[in-house]
Specification:
Blueprint: H1 29-32, H2 45-49, E1 78-86, E2 97-101, E3 127-131, E4 137-143, E5 148-149, E6 157-158, E7 161-167, E8 174-181, H3 199-203, E9 206-207, E10 220-223, E11 226-227
Parallel strand pairs: 1-10, 1-11, 8-9
Antiparallel strand pairs: 1-4, 2-3, 2-7, 5-6, 7-8
Pfam families: Dioxygenase_C, PCDO_beta_N
Domain Intradiol ring-cleavage dioxygenases: 81-109
EC number: 1.13.11.3
């Protein structure tokens, strides 16, 4: 694919910007945090060069989470999630594979270990994918996910959010983040969000309502731009320094 992102070695993680691995307010970090010094390893040729992704890999409905599970419409508030993927100079990054996954409108995932009391939607699978166009643009049609409780504190709830995965030129070049929704009061109360001490980084994860892209009598729109490197980059869970 001619528009694939530039290949090259993986960049070492900037741990000064990343939340500390051990954050007792986020309970599972207590058992997951490493107890020994971390060791950085270099990337391999396969991680740096491929495979690349093209639109011929996508199904017709892959970016339509409302219909792509059964063909029948999912239940919930219909929304458009859209934006651009750019580098630190504001230049479009075409040919990037984006994958998203999320809970349904009631706040429940289609996963055997999700025991939340909210019902499963039989027509909602909760995942989709697309590839950015030549202008770096992407779009998903989906359902606004519900908030849900999780066994962290006595009464902790995750804000409404959508998980986002961004691939570079190969499977080893993968960034993972979460998109939150403007105006959600649970964002400020979330122990996971609060592991990020830089408020500007948190703000980059909150998608504003975009009425210019909304469809009247159909769906609202939220804009989530993704910046891969530099001072304005999106905060990524697995690699804060970007692609």
């Amino acid at each position: 694919m001619t528009d694939a992102p530039t290949t090259g070695p993986l960049v070492s993680r900037d741990r000064l910007w990343h939340p500390p691995a051990y954050t007792p307010g986020y309970k599972t970090s207590v058992t997951r945090a490493p107890s020994r010094a971390l060791i950085a390893t270099g990337s391999t040729l396969s991680e740096e060069t491929g495979p690349v992704f093209g639109r011929d890999m996508l199904g017709e409905m892959d970016n339509n989470l409302i219909l792509n599970f059964t063909g029948q419409p999912a239940i919930g508030e219909r929304i458009i999630m859209h934006g651009r993927v750019t580098d630190d100079q504001g230049r479009a990054v075409p040919g990037v594979l984006l994958e998203i996954w999320q809970a349904n409108a009631g706040g429940r995932y289609r996963h055997k270990k999700d025991g939340y009391a909210a019902p499963l939607d039989p027509n909602f699978g909760g995942c989709g994918r697309t590839v950015t166009n030549e202008r770096g643009e992407y779009e998903f049609l989906t359902i606004r996910p519900g908030a849900y409780p999780w066994p962290n504190g006595v009464n902790d709830w995750r804000p409404m959010h959508i998980h986002v995965s961004v691939f570079g030129s190969g499977f080893g070049q993968r960034l993972i983040t979460q998109m939150y929704f403007e105006g959600d009061p649970l964002i400020a109360r979330c122990p996971i969000v609060n592991t990020i001490k830089d408020r500007s980084a948190v703000e980059q994860l909150v998608a504003p309502l975009d009425m210019s892209a909304a469809i009247p009598m159909d769906c609202l729109a939220y804009r989530f731009d993704i910046v891969l490197r530099g001072r304005r980059q999106t905060f990524f869970e697995n690699r804060p320094e970007g692609m």
